[in-house]
Amino acid sequence: MGTATAAGLLLGFGLDRVLGDPRRGHPVAGFGSAAMQVEQATYRDSRAAGVVHEVVLVGTVTGLGIGLRRAVSGRAGAGRKRGDVTVARALGEVAVTAAATWTVLGGTTLAKTGREMADRLESGDIEGARALLPSLCGRDPEALDADGLARAALESIAENTSDAAVAPLFWGAVAGVPGLLAYRAINTLDAMVGYRNARYERFGWAAARTDDVANLAPARVSGLLTTALAPVIGGRPADAWRAWRRDAGKHPSPNAGVAEASMAGALGVTLGGRTEYRHGIEMRPTLGDGPVPRVPDLHRAVRLSEAVQVATALAAATAAYLRR
User: Fold this and answer.
1) Range of the domain at 206
2) Its pTM surpasses 0.90
């Protein structure tokens, strides 16, 4: 029922805006713990083992989403008149969709962390900002000064606006509760094992490629909305579009490049360059034109991220409604 899905997406988005992520017992953290246990049984240094790991975990979560949807319909139809069944089923679908949406979204916490990072940098609390950085990305905070911390946080906000907000809502509009849960499982597994290091080069291949495919459309939706909403933070859509078209393909990720390049163009800054992780240094291509980002640009990036999130929620609900 498209109307119920649309209402559930909006209600779940509202819950995320008001409550943010649960402080304890987050279902995504529980999935991560379960995935670590499964990895002890499935891990082999091979792509085939990684495929099994991905299929088992994503398939289980998708099956859970399908089961929840069927359970709502089944319980609603037990011993009720036809009109009552329709109302009860719709209310049940709204509730389940809202709960799933709130569970998988991370946009409010992302924006809150970005603002806190900017506030610490503005007050000169470099050590506090370094302690906060791991909440946003995997850079080595000890190697970064204030501008480096601002750039790292800004790039993370650009990428995770797509991953933590746009993509879940996109897949919720496309496939309802199963789409919401499946996407979050895919993205979480990529964050856990989708690395090019000695342990996961082969085993994590399936997780990384699946995440790339799942984010192809959402990243471009995020890029379009970032471009269109650039005036919200004093930017120009033409600059965001130019940076996207010119620079996104330089990035090693087919999706992060879109999110970061369009954000760089909207802000009028240059992202990329020398990037220090705990595992080593990467030389990233530069994205956008202008100076390196400063702390005020981080505040602007947070405002643009929130605008993109709101626009995505409205668009996803509209799309789900029209699919009736």
Assistant:
1) 2-322
2) yes
